[in-house]
Design goal:
alpha/beta, 8-stranded mixed beta sheet, Dihydrofolate Reductase, subunit A, RibDG_C
Amino acid sequence: MAKLIYLMNASLDAYVADAQGSFSWIVPTEEWISYINALCSSCGTFLYGRRMYEAMVYWETDYAAHNHQAFHLDFARQWQAAEKIVYSRTLAEPRSARTRIEREFDTDAVRRLKADAGRDITIQGPELAAQALRAGLVDEVHLLILPVIVGGGKRCFPGDLRLGLELVEERAFRNGVVAMRYAVHS
């Protein structure tokens, strides 16, 4: 059975975007992206909400117009090769290959996906992840905590969630980012 992994970048005060909706304070480095590439190498499917998908679809074609370093191109290749499921009531059609749109998050369908998948699955975006966390579908939480306090915005976790976690791995990067991987206890 595949693991469902909530993977997210967050500020030290646990926001994924600031009060203006910006995440421009996220400035990835080679060390950090190489770590994410290694994490995602075991994943065959990415689950997204609409807003997260619209940010990530950059890696389908738009990235090619920029002079990216090899570690970014490695991520682009992984992203393009993965299956993507986007949960949206408003998107008419996907803007990337290997992508399908679902109108509702169906916990039973995600359970079946986990049971049938040969590779792990990531879920990204706090609103979508909140549904999976509440349903007990998430097996691991991977947080990359940035050395910044943004003071408000979109929270990484819903305010009404209580969840037991066990620290499995931690790693500090030279730029002050700390990666933490937790196993979720039921």
